[in-house]
Amino acid sequence: MRHRVKTKSFHRRKEQREALFINLAKALILNGRITTTLPKAKALRSFVEKLVTLAKEDSIHAKRLLSQRLKDQKVARKLYSEIAPLFKERNGGYTRIYKLEKRRIGDGGEQAIIEFVEYPEQG
40 in a domain, yes or no? Predict the structure, then answer.
């Protein structure tokens, strides 16, 4: 039974699950859009939105927490200097998820695209 179980385990230990979300978050922050499975995209949404909310706060403590949680100072710097200012006026809802019709070839897993609502175009 799943009574009072808050998160999905993805059949991984806690450390592996945290590493998975950190790597997915890094890819999303650097690229603005990634393709992954639907359950991972839904779980990643809450992880990334908490990071963006933290990055909107302009303090040394918030910047250090971001570097600690993402385990990469370059990615954290991009988050609080380029992405967070785009969402200053927005109170949540920083990402969107599109379900893809095409399923993954190996196991038929549902695919989805997760992206930031506002992301600067790379040119």
Answer: yes
